[in-house]
TrEMBL record:
It comes from the Bacteria. The lineage of its organism: Bacteria, Pseudomonadati, Bacteroidota, Cytophagia, Cytophagales. Residues 27-258 form the Aminoglycoside phosphotransferase domain. It holds the Pfam family APH. This is Phosphotransferase family protein.
Length: 342
């Protein structure tokens, strides 16, 4: 679907549901993401964000737009303020060809895989940003679950085992190349699942490029984006995924493409673990498992997108190189298992 097609289809819906004059509506697409499609809609003096699934094969709950909308509504009810305000959702695929939802646009700075041109970010900026990021995660993990409805968005019992089993199955279904290290990680994870009674609401994609900051002089967090994989379960699974994206200077260059955590000033993974542990009071002795799982999961996500690219559903040229991310994740996971280092 072209942007012009989307504009023609969405305009009557916006006029009907939001009473907006769409005579001069404009739509543009954000190009940075690897998963669901995100668009900026400008109409009258208002700006909105539209989220819809990617074209082609759907992958589990990760592309359930109505569920993501309900997550934002429940977070709003629970008092978590670091989210874009949900506005409306639509399950009728006849409107634009898929379910979608609309939320407010939050203005601010989003850090992708490179520091934007013309911006100088100090080590103090990154020091504060890394602390703010973990504090925002801790705040999320301490939310009330029952009255807000957040508890209804997941099944905490057996969560860790289901995640290991589920992501292992996804990898094998999306497999295109023989990568022994990834299958080595599967067997290790299945044999080393920790038992945990901690239950929290999880974002499951908590990294810098999903965070809207105040501006280049102030890394205050205004909003966390992309709640498509959010659920209820062991909070250290959320931390483990964030650590998988938390690249350091010495890491492979290809693993630095998802998160600007390697410039000077950022906490190291070890410092993140210590900081989170002191603030949460949780037992951090099994963090190797959670980190390895996170690295494996990142590899599976890359594998799924790469498979869709090979099948012709995701033509973005960036996706052709994702098989190298899968291989790097497998190597990192296997090395961590064998050395015990995170």
């Amino acid at each position: 679907m072209t942007l012009e097609d989307l504009k023609i289809k969405i305009a009557p819906f916006l006029e009907d549901k939001l009473a907006i004059n769409t005579e001069n509506i404009s739509i543009s697409q954000f190009k940075g993401g690897y998963s669901n499609l995100t668009y900026l809609i400008k109409a009258e003096d208002k700006e909105f964000i539209l989220r819809r699934p990617p074209l082609g094969k759907k992958i589990s709950k990760a592309h359930d737009m109505i569920r993501e909308f309900k997550v934002l509504e429940a977070l709003q009810k629970a008092g978590y303020k670091k989210i874009p305000k949900p506005i409306l959702s639509c399950e009728d695929e006849a409107v634009i060809g898929s379910p979608f939802f609309i939320m407010e646009k939050v203005d601010g700075l989003i850090l992708r895989n490179q520091i934007p041109e013309g911006i100088n970010l100090s080590s103090r900026f990154f020091q504060d940003l890394s602390k703010n990021t973990i504090d925002a995660m801790l705040e999320l993990h301490q939310l009330e679950l029952k009255d807000s409805g957040l508890l209804n968005l997941g099944k905490p019992d057996g969560y860790v085992e289901r995640q290991v089993s589920g992501w292992s199955e996804r990898y094998l279904k999306a497999k295109t190349d023989e990568i022994p290290a990834m299958e080595f990680a599967i067997e290790w994870l299945k044999s080393n699942c920790p038992t945990s009674k901690a239950v929290s609401f999880l974002n499951n994609d908590f990294k810098y490029d999903n965070i809207v900051l105040r501006d280049e002089s102030n890394p205050e967090i205004k909003a966390i984006l992309d709640w498509e994989m959010a659920t209820v379960g062991d909070p250290l699974m959320d931390l483990g995924t964030s650590l998988a994206y938390w690249a350091e200077k010495e890491d492979a260059e290809i693993l630095k493409m998802f998160n600007l955590t390697h410039p000077d000033g950022n906490m190291t993974r070890s410092e993140v673990i210590n900081y989170y542990g002191k603030k949460s009071g949780l037992d951090m002795s099994n963090m190797l498992f959670y980190y390895v799982f996170g690295v494996f999961k990142v590899g599976v996500i890359a594998q799924q997108i790469y498979q869709r690219h090979m099948q012709g559903f995701a033509p973005d040229p960036r996706f052709a190189g994702l098989i190298h991310v899968v291989k790097a994740c497998g190597k990192t996971a296997k090395n961590s298992i064998e050395t015990g280092k995170i």
